[in-house]
């Protein structure tokens, strides 16, 4: 049975929501106190802060997983959000989330830094879970609503949702890179993924290069050509009538919640904490800082290697410099993440063992998540921020550091393989694979004349302060509304869609 036949239209709910966000995780985290009582807290992060006002204004709902396996929760309200929890079984968490999302797609979309694994059982679970999300969204959206689907975990949702609810306007945003055709081609289910995505009216990517990669893949595997960022698609419904729509694809680089960072950076408590951090470290001349999820895409090993060599070469000493590396725990049950932790912790242990003195430590390695206040205090305390990702859709840490540096001091070493590097041109840009180049850049950032540092930081701040995450969401949603108005009701004979353009790819794999 094809996906199309299995997805019958759903009845439009009478008390549905006008604006629906669909993402793998709900925008809340659960706290459990000592007595076992649980409560919800809004998750930190730009996406959640950007969409909260839209939710409040537009009668919004958010469909997503609440983070615990095998638990069914009824929809509930929390601050401005109406939350619709999606149930995932323990096996689905293994196969859809840890497996297909994070051990197939994640490495495939990040330059195959780790080897992607391809398992049919993971794919079936991905498809089944995407169907569940699509159905929940279809049962939540009001007539003619706007539904905004987020990220690589849910790439099949747009087309599934369009089949269930042809009346809604569908946006999709890919927060991670979209790979070049040569890499995407490895995916046994490449056509099905492209079919899924092209159910949307607008697909947003971080960089123009990601949008181009996507358009090339669509041309190659679906036989549909984009012209000026738009392409026509059509499909036959179960009743045999044709439906047609226009898919637009473009770049919408995401940003951060600038106001909340500025507010924290201005707060006397956070500033006092930044001074305290420096004092506790013995007031070193230079604090280098890395802040990442413990992920192999972040180039943490490359950074630590460069730092260790600088200590070994005598360019840095533990008496005058320290590297603080915050590595927040992530996807800990996925093999490649376990291996990375071993690798990084082994490196830190060796370097510290070799260079530490009783009073000084080379690398302060912190395998914890911290409250946002503490992160901003770290940004204020650090002289040089190190962002050395091997591939990163955007990297918001780089933008957060810039937003926090209100006095325009500090230097940012930034990998050219991040989306952020396209906007923060005044950073000290590096190729993290080039360890000598990285070492030079770290020393250059440390020794940069004050006037040059201020000039660079001022220019980066201008960029970040004038392009915050609210601008990002407004731009995407305005374009989505515009494209949807223009793209519906395209005459059927003008459409050239996947249905007409079979590709040479073997369909059976994709079903
Ligand atoms: C990246 C992805 C997000 C994801 C986040 C945390 O930023 O783009 O979709 O939510 O990492 O990863 P996790 O697997 O914990 O949700």
TrEMBL record:
The organism's superkingdom is given as: Bacteria
Biased composition, class Basic and acidic residues, residue ranges: 502-511
Q: Name one GO molecular function term.
A: alpha,alpha-trehalose-phosphate synthase (UDP-forming) activity
The segments labelled Disordered in the record are 487-511
Q: Which family does it belong to?
A: Belongs to the glycosyltransferase 20 family.
How is this protein named in the record? Trehalose-6-phosphate synthase
Name the InterPro entries on file.
Glyco_trans_20
GO biological process per UniProt: trehalose biosynthetic process
Coiled-coil regions listed:
none
